[in-house]
């Protein structure tokens, strides 16, 4: 059989994305919007209420080795921050029983928080593609994500920023907030880019992680904080990110099976179609034992995006040398922006509802976008027509203008990697030959 042409491969890659929708796919997108708008009208269960506040004294993190494979022990501590503001039934009950309990207004807030600065249509399409255009499966995946984000308190993680989250965690358990900050700035994770497909990159140094050094909840919160900050890098038509696991120095003591399962679940169930490629760099022989346990957990789509690289020459097939941090390239004189810049501690964000004019304009824009979308769904207009794309640009502009009201400051913002200046959003990886990029109108 002759190999597929370059044009055919490219067509397959963009199929089902904005500007590349069939009439049937456009109809399904409209149907999904309509179903979502109906959901947002539901009253929810007036008797739903959060569980009793949880607070514990400081205690050593639970010990756990690799070969426990995440087995729960009776002494395992429950999450303290996660789930503290929602009814436990929202997540513990099956989806069909849990969703009617949640006020539509809460689901609506969760949805628009998830959209963030992205194109709303593009977000919806990720769920349709992830479920191969099975409408009911895509809808269930979407609403399951919304309830999960409410329980995980994603909006609060974003609003508090790293310092505000530290303060909240300290109130719940002494030392927990400091543990979160220590993990965030331990060298475990750096942001940068681009890879050779123009994606942002998260570099993870696995050798710095030891499961017993922190509570499992701390690692979950760190992961979510990094993922949500990274989403600012999204600029259409690039919707995905690259992860590089630097396995140099890895031993079984660094393995955390619970973290692996959490990360895989995030990408497969709650952030679908956002992983562009995953590079596992310099994995030692001992990792083969670990990999044999991870492989059965992998969704085939995720598995297809994983590549192993043995050395820098192989890695630079995917990531240019100019984007590599010094701990991978070996060149101590060429550090990435995230590596080399030291900044002051960011100010704490707030959970108070914003009251600025920009925030009110954003709320008005959501109403306008929703109304126009409901009307558009009744027509035969395409998702890519001029009026709809202009609406997406105005939505994005309104969301960017109020980002300071909704997002607590982060170290990456202070380093100038994601900057809102004069109501424009810029990304600056700081890598060699990189020019700061205005992505405000990339919808």
Automatic annotation (TrEMBL):
Say which domain of life the source belongs to.
Eukaryota
Q: Which CDD domains match?
A: SEC14
One Pfam match: CRAL_TRIO
Domain spans labelled CRAL-TRIO: 178-336
InterPro entries per the record? CRAL-TRIO_dom, CRAL-TRIO_dom_sf, CRAL/TRIO_N_dom, CRAL/TRIO_N_dom_sf, PITP/CRAL-TRIO
Q: Which parts of the sequence are annotated with region: Disordered?
A: 43-78
**Which segments of the protein form a coiled coil according to its record?**
none
**SMART domains according to UniProt:** CRAL_TRIO_N, SEC14
Q: Which SUPFAM superfamilies match?
A: CRAL/TRIO domain, CRAL/TRIO N-terminal domain
Q: What protein does this entry describe?
A: CRAL-TRIO domain-containing protein
Species assigned in the record: Lichtheimia ornata
């Amino acid at each position: 059989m002759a190999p597929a042409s370059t044009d055919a491969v490219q067509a397959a890659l963009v199929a089902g994305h904005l500007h590349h929708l069939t009439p049937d796919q456009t109809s399904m997108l409209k149907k999904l919007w309509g179903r979502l708008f109906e959901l947002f009208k539901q009253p929810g269960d007036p008797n739903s209420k959060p569980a009793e506040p949880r607070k514990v004294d400081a205690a050593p993190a639970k010990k756990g080795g690799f070969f426990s494979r995440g087995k729960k022990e009776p002494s395992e501590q429950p999450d303290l921050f996660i789930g503290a503001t929602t009814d436990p039934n929202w997540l513990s009950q099956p989806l069909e029983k849990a969703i009617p309990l949640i006020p539509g207004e809460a689901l609506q807030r969760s949805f628009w928080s998830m959209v963030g600065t992205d194109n709303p249509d593009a977000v919806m399409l990720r769920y349709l593609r992830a479920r191969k255009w099975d409408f009911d499966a895509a809808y269930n995946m979407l609403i399951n994500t919304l309830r999960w984000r409410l329980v995980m308190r994603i909006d609060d993680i974003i609003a508090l920023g790293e310092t505000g989250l530290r303060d909240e965690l300290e109130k719940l358990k002494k030392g927990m907030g400091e543990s979160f900050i220590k993990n965030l700035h331990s060298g475990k994770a750096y942001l940068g880019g681009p890879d050779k497909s123009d994606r942002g990159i998260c570099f993870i140094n696995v050798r710095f992680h030891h499961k017993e050094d922190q509570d499992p909840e701390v690692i979950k919160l760190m992961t979510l904080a990094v993922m949500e900050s990274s989403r600012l890098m999204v600029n259409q038509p690039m919707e995905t990110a690259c992860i590089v696991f630097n396995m140099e120095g890895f031993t079984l003591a660094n393995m955390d099976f619970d973290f692996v399962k959490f990360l895989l679940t995030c990408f497969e169930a709650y952030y679908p179609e956002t992983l562009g490629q995953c590079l596992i760099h310099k994995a030692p022989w001992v990792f083969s034992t670990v990999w044999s346990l991870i492989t059965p957990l992998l969704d085939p789509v995720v598995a297809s995006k994983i590549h192993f690289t043995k050395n820098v020459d192989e890695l630079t097939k995917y990531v240019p040398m100019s984007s590599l941090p010094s701990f991978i390239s070996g060149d101590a004189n060429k550090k990435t922006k995230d590596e080399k810049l030291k900044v002051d501690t960011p100010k704490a964000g707030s959970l108070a509802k914003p009251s600025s004019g920009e925030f009110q304009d954003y709320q008005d824009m959501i109403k306008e976008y929703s109304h126009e979308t409901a009307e558009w769904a009744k027509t035969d207009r395409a998702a890519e027509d001029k009026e709809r794309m202009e609406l997406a640009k105005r939505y994005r502009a309104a969301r960017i203008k109020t980002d300071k009201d909704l997002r607590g400051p982060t170290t990456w913002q202070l380093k100038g990697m994601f900057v809102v200046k004069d109501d424009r959003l810029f990304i600056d990886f700081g890598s060699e030959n990189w020019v700061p990029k205005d992505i405000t109108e990339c919808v």
